[in-house]
Amino acid sequence: MDGENRAPGSADNRGDNIKVVVRCRPPSSEEVKAGYPIVVAVNSVHRTITVKDPSTDASKVYTFDHAFGADSTQPDIFNQVARPIIDNVLEGYNGTIFAYGQTGSGKTFTMEGVSDKPELRGIIPNSFVHIFGHISKAEDNKRFLVRVSYFEIYKEQIRDLLAKKGDRDRAGNANILEIKEDKLKGVYVKDLSEQVVYSADDLDRIMAVGKKNRVTAATKMNLHSSRSHAIFTVIVEKSERRSDGSVHLCVGKLNLVDLAGSERQTKTEATDDRLKEAAKINHGLSNLGNVIAALTDGKSTHVPYRNSKLTRILQDSLGGNSKTVMCANVGPAGYNYDETVNTLRYATRAKSIKNAAKINEDPKDALLRKLEDEIQELRRQLNEDPGGGENDGPGSKRMSEEMMLRKRQREEEKAKLKKMRDELAEEREELERNRFLGEKERQKLQEDIAAKEEQLTAADAERNALTEKLSLLEKTIIVGGENLLDKAEEQERLLEASAKELELRRKREEDLRKTLLSKKIERSKMEQKHQTLQEIATSKKFEVTRLEEEIVTLRADLKDLRQENQERLEAAQQSKAEVEKNIRLYEKVIDQLLPKKMQELIESKCTYNKDIGEWEVSCLAFTGAMMRPDGKHGGQVRSLSHAEALAQAEQLKSQPLTDRNWEGVFPKL
Ligand SMILES: Nc1ncnc2c1ncn2[C@@H]1O[C@H](COP(=O)(O)OP(=O)(O)OP(=O)(O)O)[C@@H](O)[C@H]1O
């Protein structure tokens, strides 16, 4: 696949994101002794890692597919990080596991671990055990071929860590190899040696040889720091004969990558050679960062895989045909804060890389198929194969004709050898029987016998060579069900036990997560309820405020009303006083005008007419001065109108008050 010009993210909607896990190692004894503050906290249930800035105390939280703290064990890491990828590889996928982090953060510990302590062995040796454990449990219709290569990229040069003596210079350095690419194989290292392995112990041994050859150098940060990127590749080829007689072949490739430390050069106080070395190591790593950025920024149309050997080699692992897991390693101490945050940022970005892995079915360069064919051919030559090749499909006419011909040839050859043996035996007998044969005849017979013996010895030698080759090739291919674990059996048991425990723990964690989730939901409901109550309270408060404002307004209205009432009352009182004053005036006037007797008389004749709201004097209408003959009423008298009464009163004002006058005004009642 030409990743160079592939639009990043073109695998979107097709593949899986690469898995990213984080592991924080425990503080080293030096860190404890120096009293560095611990600034990293891991929550494996929530899969988070929290880093506190020692200068500001501000915390940053990062979430990954898994988060492992100081108490995580090597089998745990293997079971959760590596096992799923290796199971994929055993199905024919490409898989990559790589560790990333600053020097001394625990990459090598995670990838390799401590080889002589089973419980401290890392992902690589545990992967070997798992691969061969799987093969020994497979059914016998499956055949496997496992081969490995191991190389390092040191100062942008590729060296074979499994190179034979002939491929090394006088100083013992392996030849520098080239990266090539072709349509069939994709990106590969040309002339890289490969070794076929038969057991987990074999793999361990090969790994140990390669490790010895790996360049390591001391830096201030980590005395045994690895200064090169190391890539150990295990290729598992598997053929499976199905019940219909067909044979399926797939090839899985596992890359186990231990990167050099990602620390900054200034921090290592590296000088001269070390500085140049660091620059080149950082070139690969910084380009790895550029590749990750280009794959995830959603903008770049070019992924710079070709800018470094490391990214070229990891091309398929990042954004290509591979199931990939990245383990970001960090230390817990405060003095590494910047590096830790850097690693976690890098890892966070890597989470969004999408890969599109597919099973590598029947690849043209599969060694297993070639070997199977060769074995069949050898068996035929040795006449061990009674017919029918492993890969011959049923009804293959051309193949069966060819087989018949070969069979005939083999039978003829066999018959010829048998005839030769018989003749030889006869000739020997002849020589024995006829002691008195002539010298010439005897010599001829002896020469004949010697020639036949030679021919037969050559035929035997040829057969032995073929048998030996066959047995070698047969050994190369592992039949499912063979026990290949040897000493690794113990390790396999340890991994299985840990896997079981992990399963239980996973269940417990899942339960815990579920409980936490339900609590969260409950809390959110409560919060919602609380929110509703708060909303009600707010609206009530609003209502109260509104009512309070209304009360204030009403109070003001009330005050106004009171004031108004007061004013009205005062006005009423004033008018009452006025009325009383007037009444007193009128009483005075009446007293002056009317004798008491007359007043009492009139008073007794007064009734209050509610309908018109006035006092009426009964019989008044028929009294003296108030009566006038009325033409309209047939000459009858009638009451004076108000105006007429006033006019009369006006008239009286100028007259002295006498009874006579009074009688004119008030006639006798
Ligand atoms: N999880 C762990 N538990 C206990 N010890 C650990 C752990 N991780 C790392 N260590 C110890 O810390 C030290 C540094 O670890 P390691 O060599 O693996 O770092 P590294 O990242 O590979 O460094 P470099 O980049 O220089 O190769 C070693 O002594 C190792 O044993």
Describe the SSE topology:
Elements: E1 16-17, E2 19-24, H1 29-34, E3 40-43, E4 48-52, E5 59-63, E6 66-68, H2 74-90, E7 94-101, H3 107-111, H4 123-137, E8 142-154, E9 157-160, E10 176-177, E11 179-182, E12 186-189, E13 195-197, H5 200-213, E14 229-241, E15 247-258, H6 265-268, H7 272-296, H8 309-313, E16 323-330, H9 337-350, E17 354-355, H10 367-381, H11 397-433, H12 439-476, E18 478-479, H13 488-593, H14 596-605, E19 606-609, E20 614-617, E21 628-630, E22 636-638, H15 642-653, H16 659-665
Parallel strand pairs: 2-6, 2-16, 7-15, 7-16
Antiparallel strand pairs: 1-17, 3-4, 4-5, 8-9, 8-13, 8-14, 8-18, 9-10, 11-12, 14-15, 19-20, 21-22
Helix pairs in contact: 2-4, 2-13, 4-5, 4-13, 10-12, 11-12
Bound molecules: adenosine-5'-triphosphate (ATP).
Notable characteristics:
disordered N terminus; Methane Monooxygenase Hydroxylase, Chain G, domain 1; Kinesin; 49% helix; binds adenosine-5'-triphosphate; alpha+beta; 11-stranded mixed sheet; 3-stranded antiparallel sheet; 669 residues
Would you write up a description of this structure?
This protein folds into four domains: 3-355, Kinesin; 367-479, Methane Monooxygenase Hydroxylase, Chain G, domain 1; 538-593; 596-665, no CATH class. The protein has helices at 29-34, 74-90, 107-111, 123-137, 200-213, 265-268, 272-296, 309-313, 337-350, 367-381, 397-433, 439-476, 488-593, 596-605, 642-653, 659-665, and strands at 16-17, 19-24, 40-43, 48-52, 59-63, 66-68, 94-101, 142-154, 157-160, 176-177, 179-182, 186-189, 195-197, 229-241, 247-258, 323-330, 354-355, 478-479, 606-609, 614-617, 628-630, 636-638. Helix 4 packs across helix 13 and helix 11 runs antiparallel to helix 12 (439-476). Residues 1-13, 217-225, 385-396 and 621-638 have low confidence and may be disordered. The protein is of the alpha+beta class and 669 residues long. The strands form six sheets. Strands 2, 6, 7, 8, 9, 10, 13, 14, 15, 16 and 18 form an eleven-stranded mixed sheet that branches. Strands 3-4-5 form a three-stranded antiparallel sheet, with helices on one face. A two-stranded antiparallel ribbon has the order 1-17. The structure holds adenosine-5'-triphosphate. Adenosine-5'-triphosphate is lined by residues 25-26, 28, 101, 103-109, 222, 225-226, 260-261, 329. One of its GO terms (biological process) is microtubule-based movement. InterPro entries: Kinesin-like_fam (IPR027640), Kinesin_motor_CS (IPR019821), Kinesin_motor_dom (IPR001752), Kinesin_motor_dom_sf (IPR036961), P-loop_NTPase (IPR027417). It holds the Pfam family Kinesin. Its main location: cytoplasm.
